[in-house]
Structures are given as C-alpha cells and as structure tokens.
Amino acid sequence: MMRTRVLAGILAAQSLIQGAALAQSFTATVPVPAIDRWVYPFASQPGFEPTIPIFAALREPGFDDRDAQFLLAFDTVAGTPAGLGSERYIVQRLTVTAVIANDERFIYDPTPDALESSYDPEDPEYIADADLGKPIELFAAGFRNGQSLATFTETSPFSIFPPFPPREGVRSVFAAVYDENDTAADISRQVRQKVQASPLAIGQTLDVQPGDLVPAGTTFTFDIDLSTEPAQRYFARAFDHGRLAVIITSLHPASGGPDGGGGGTGFYPAFFSKENAVAQANGLIASLEYEVVAYPGADFNLDGGVDGADIEAFFLAWEAAEQHADFNLDGGVDGADVAAFFEAWENG
After folding, report:
1. Alpha carbon of 314 to those of 2, 124, 249, 308, 322: distances in Å?
2. Is it the case that residue 214 has pLDDT exceeding 80?
3. Is 140 in a helix, a strand, or coil?
4. Exposure check for the chain: N or C terminus, fewer CB within 10 A?
5. How are the residues of the chain apportioned to helix, strand and coil, as percentages rounded to the nearest 5?
6. Residues contacting residue 170 through CB under 8 Å, at least 6 positions apart
7. What stretch of H or E contains 312?
8. How far apart are CA 136 and CA 53, in angstroms?
9. Is 233 helix (H, G, I), strand (E, B) or coil?
10. What is the pLDDT of residue 59?
11. What is the C-alpha separation between 26 and 40, in angstroms, rounded?
12. How many angstroms separate the Cα of 166 from the Cα of each of 67, 170, 204, 263?
C-alpha cells in the first residue's frame, strides 16, 4: 500500500521533478597508502620500516618462495562513495606507483619470466631465463587466520604462529590469485608447488633500460589488468568496502648477485615506505590512481542520504527507461526494478 501511494504521488508530480541520477565516473589519486606493510616473518618493526624489501627464498624449507612481500592498501572513500553494493562498480583504470629505495641492487626486467626459470637447475622442467633479472609483480591480496581487508592493519601479526620454527603457508595476508568463485589462492609457494599464476601487473619504468641496474629513486608503475571477471569483481568489492589492497612481490632470490648467482649479498628491490623521511620530503611514497564508474543504489542521487529525493530521482530515470534505472541489473527496466529499489530504500 505504501509503495502504491508513493508511486502515485511521484507520477502525479512528475512534471516537478528536476534532474536524474546517472551512473557517475570517479577519477581520483590517493597520494598516500593507508597501509604499506612489510609482510615478512622476521620484520623487527612491522608497519614502521623505512624501506620495504621484496625477495624470494627459493627451495628453503620453512620459508615461502615469495618470502618478503609488500602490502599496499589505499582508502578510496574520499574520492568514491562506498557501500553501493559491489555489483554497482565498474573499475575502468587502476595504476599503482612505488619508488625504489636501494641503489643499483637489481636488474630491470619489464617482462614476464617463465615460472620454470626459478626451478632448481637440476629439475628436468627447468628453463633458463630468457633475459636478465626478474620482474616486479603485483597481485591481489588474500587473507587468512581470521584476518580480512577490514581488520588487517600495519601492525597486525604476520601469522598466528610464532616465527620460530619457520613455517610455510601461514602468513595472514598473502599474494593471491582469485578464481571464478572469488576464492583466493595463496601463490607465495608457487615455485615449489609449480603453480602457474599470472600477476595483475608487472612494474614498468621509462627511466631504466631492460637489463640495466635500477638506481634509487626510480618510480615503478603498475597498470593493473582489469580484463578478467575475477579481477573486476575483486576491485569492485574493494570500492564497495572503501579500501583496496594489493601485494607487490618478486622472485628475486634473497641470496645472490643481480643475476641471481652468489650468496647472501642482497641483490633485490626495496621500496620507500610512507614512514621514510626522505620519501616524505621528496614525494617518493607509493600512490594509487583510478577511474571507476558507480551505479547508484538506494542513495540513488548519490548525495550521501537515503530520502524522498532518491525516490524522485529513481522514478524519473525509471519512467524514461534509463539504463541506470535497471536497479536489479537484469538487463531491463521494469516493475522488478521498482520492487528492488524500494526494498533497498526501505532498508536505508
């Protein structure tokens, strides 16, 4: 009955309704991450390290292959309204930048490497690397041990297990690949488990030639591949939540020279953190740029409140059969959208 009265009132006042809510495109830069955490079991000051190294512990029992990882989380609510429902976001562009802190300690490799190039050379499946260096890769973030995007902080424990004795596969946040069911697979041990997994982006720079050593202050850009359904859904959920998390990682061996040979000399990337005074003074902190389209929910006019103005905006769009009035996202504008809208509106 209430819905009928509201519909009648809106239709009667239709000539007085001004404007309509449209899907809105939001373009923003987040200049400082909410979290830039060194995800490493032996970090002495988690969340407060001035630099964040990333390296691998290949074939080391008790250690993940991707041993030291770099978690970045960015809050997006200042630039894009959250809480519309993940199905109401279409992410069009995501670019993460991060700046190298160590000087000429690794070789720039802008291309994917065969996973088999990180196998033991005695493994019959081993493939020699086709070029110098290892790429710097970006993945989605997965959580376990009761942690989630909402609960994990810069100072959250690495694991529910103590660091000694070292254990594999126990980190609370990890480099992840999501499948069609939105289940996160931890790819931290992908070399020993021989799991093929493609990153969402490989770090690129125009300041260094492939095969050359990378100087401190070099900015790496990660243009995230949004072409797959799991990636699109992962980041749509992030915008709905208001926080987006990624992991930067690599398979640079923890021991060895720039080409991976030798022992224990620390030839792998390290990034500036937001806690680093040099980074703060010189604008060397990791950042996020994005463009996302948001389709309205119960707050149909996206003014921050759920009230009668949203009813007016919805019915104007619905009467005109505007695409964004397809509230239940079934491909058509009909009575089912009215019911879906009012259910959301009545629930605030």
Report:
1. 16, 63, 45, 10, 10
2. yes
3. strand
4. N
5. 20, 25, 55
6. 145, 159, 160, 161
7. helix 308-319
8. 11
9. helix
10. 87
11. 35
12. 11, 9, 33, 21
Cα(270)–Cα(231) distance, integer angstroms: 26
Read off the pLDDT of residues 77-100 as tens digits, 9 standing for 90 and up.
Answer: 999 999 888 989 999 999 999 999
Strand ranges across the sheet with 219-223: 24-30, 287-294, 89-99, 219-223
C-alpha to C-alpha distance for 226 and 92, rounded to whole angstroms? 7
186/178 Cα distance (integer angstroms): 9
**What is the percent of the chain where pLDDT is above 90?**
75
Confirm if 186 and 176 have CB atoms less than 8 A apart.
Answer: yes
Give dist(CA 314, CA 329) in Å, integer: 14
In angstroms, what CA-CA distances link 272 with 77, 95, 202? 25, 17, 18
Tokens found for residue 70: 């770099």
What are the tokens at 210? 């492939």
In 3D, which of 207, 200, 259, 265 has the Cα closest to residue 53?
265
Q: Which residues contact 31 (CB under 8 A, 6 or more apart)?
A: 285, 287
Rounded CA gap, 173 and 226, in Å? 22
CA distance 133 to 306: 54
Query: 13 or 181, which is more confident?
Result: 181
Residues in the chain: 348
Tokens of 211: 């095969």
pTM value is 0.85
Q: How far apart are CA 161 and CA 168, in angstroms?
A: 11
Average pLDDT over residues 259-278: 77
